[in-house]
Write a structure and sequence with these properties.
Blueprint lengths: L8 H15 L13 H4 E10 L3 E15 L2 E14 L2 E17 L12 E15 H4 L8 E16 L5 E9 L13 E7 L1
Antiparallel strand pairs: 1-2, 1-8, 2-3, 3-4, 4-5, 5-6, 6-7, 7-8
C-alpha cells in the first residue's frame, strides 16, 4: 500500500497552506458571542478519493450542533467503496465527533492576514466490514463491526458567514487489528455550512 502514497507530507502541507491563503479573503468576518439556536445547526461532511492498486471512495455527510461557541458535536453515516487490486467490498456505518476550537482567529496571535481557527477533533467511528475481505477463514458471520476512535487536530478556515473548510490530521487510538482502513496519520479535508 505504500506505493500509492506518492505525495510527501511536506508537499501536501504546502498545497493545503496555499489553498487556505487563497480562500482566506472570502471569510474574513469573525463571529462574536453565541449565535442564535437556528444558526447553531450545521451540515457538511467529507468526500474522499484514492485510486491505484488500492481504491478507496468515501462519502461521509454529517449534521451537527454548536453546543457552545467553541464546542461542536456532529454525527452522520459513512459509506466507503474499498478495492484492493481486483477484490472489492462495501463498508458502511456511522460516526460521531466532538470538535473544540482551541484558538479563534490565528491572525490575532500571528498576523498572517487570515481568519483561521485551530481545532481539536475526537471521533468515534463504527463500521460494518465484510468478513471474507478483511479476515481469514473460518468466518463466524458474513460481516463484523469495528469501532475506531480517531483524535487529532487541524485548521478551520472560514469561507463564508456560515461555512468553513476544515483540514484535519487524525491518528487512530484503538485499532486492534491492522485492517488497512486508516493511514498514519489520516489527513481529511471537510466542509461545513
Amino acid at each position: 500500500m505504500t506505493d500509492v502514497k506518492k505525495i510527501s507530507l511536506r508537499t501536501l502541507w504546502s498545497i493545503l497552506l496555499l489553498l487556505l491563503l487563497t480562500i482566506s479573503s472570502f471569510g474574513q468576518s469573525i463571529r462574536q458571542g453565541a449565535p442564535p439556536i437556528r444558526e447553531r445547526i450545521f451540515f457538511g461532511g467529507s468526500f474522499g478519493l484514492q485510486f491505484g492498486s488500492l481504491t478507496d471512495i468515501e462519502i461521509a455527510p454529517i449534521a451537527g450542533f454548536w453546543v457552545l461557541p467553541r464546542i461542536a458535536v456532529a454525527a452522520g453515516p459513512d459509506y466507503r467503496f474499498y478495492s484492493y487490486y481486483k477484490d472489492n467490498t462495501h463498508i458502511y456505518g456511522g460516526k460521531t465527533y466532538l470538535e473544540l476550537t482551541l484558538l479563534r482567529n490565528i491572525n490575532s496571535v500571528i498576523p498572517i492576514g487570515t481568519n483561521t481557527d485551530i481545532i481539536a477533533h475526537v471521533e468515534d467511528q463504527l463500521l460494518s466490514l465484510e468478513s471474507s475481505f478483511f479476515r481469514d477463514p473460518p468466518f463466524t458471520s458474513k460481516r463484523f463491526y469495528t469501532n475506531t476512535i480517531l483524535a487529532g487536530g487541524g485548521l478551520s478556515q472560514m469561507i463564508g458567514k456560515r461555512s468553513a473548510l476544515n483540514i484535519l490530521v487524525l491518528w487512530t487510538l484503538n485499532e486492534k487489528e491492522d485492517l488497512g482502513l486508516y493511514s498514519t496519520p489520516e489527513i481529511r479535508l471537510s466542509f461545513v455550512f
